[in-house]
């Protein structure tokens, strides 16, 4: 079982930056691939970025490539595990609820069917 808790969302002006964090608990966290998805009002949830269990492979959606970066940190004793999404050059169209997610695989375009666990989401609002 994996529990995911996101933080770091908020209101920012266009061109600004935010860093989202996802704190994960569960002793098997390090074996899961991790992803970020987002959902804007009236739209379907969409893939943003993913990172393999080892951290050696990362994927970013074309809409955020070059602006967003996913990373992960696992403490030596595996007691603290965190996934980050660094978001730079934010645009109003990035406004959405951002969800942290965990699952067994990583690939260039993730879908909801690839996900086993979801966080509760954190709101990101970019003003123009």
Could you write a compact summary of the structure shown?
The protein has no helices and eleven strands. The chain is an all-beta fold and about 130 residues long.
Topology record:
Blueprint: E1 3-7, E2 10-13, E3 18-25, E4 33-39, E5 46-51, E6 58-60, E7 68-74, E8 81-87, E9 96-103, E10 117-118, E11 122-127
Parallel strand pairs: 2-11
Antiparallel strand pairs: 1-3, 3-8, 4-5, 4-9, 5-6, 7-8, 9-10, 9-11
Number of helical stretches of at least 4 residues:
0
Distance between the termini: 40 Å
* SS-derived structural category: mainly beta
SSE series: EEEEEEEEEEE
**In percent, how helical is the residue content?**
under 10%
Regarding quaternary structure, what we see is single chain
Largest sheet: 7 strands, mixed
Any low-confidence stretches, pLDDT <50, length ≥5?
Answer: none
Structure description:
There is one protein chain. This protein is mainly beta and 128 residues long. 0% of the residues lie in helices and 49% in strands. The protein has no helices and 11 strands. The strands form 2 sheets. Strands 2, 4, 5, 6, 9, 10 and 11 form a 7-stranded mixed beta sheet that branches. A 4-stranded antiparallel beta sheet has the order 1-3-8-7, with no helix packed on it.
């Amino acid at each position: 079982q994996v529990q995911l808790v996101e933080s770091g969302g908020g209101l920012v002006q266009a061109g600004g930056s935010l860093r989202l964090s996802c704190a994960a608990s569960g002793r098997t966290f390090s074996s899961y691939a991790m992803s970020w998805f987002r959902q804007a009002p009236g739209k379907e949830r969409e893939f943003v970025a993913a990172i393999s269990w080892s951290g050696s492979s990362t994927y970013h959606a074309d809409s955020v490539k070059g602006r967003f970066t996913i990373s992960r940190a696992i403490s030596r004793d595996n007691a603290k595990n965190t996934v980050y999404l660094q978001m730079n050059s934010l645009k109003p169209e990035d406004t959405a609820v951002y969800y942290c997610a965990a699952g067994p695989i990583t690939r260039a375009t993730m879908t909801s069917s690839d996900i086993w666990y979801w966080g509760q989401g954190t709101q990101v609002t970019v003003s123009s």
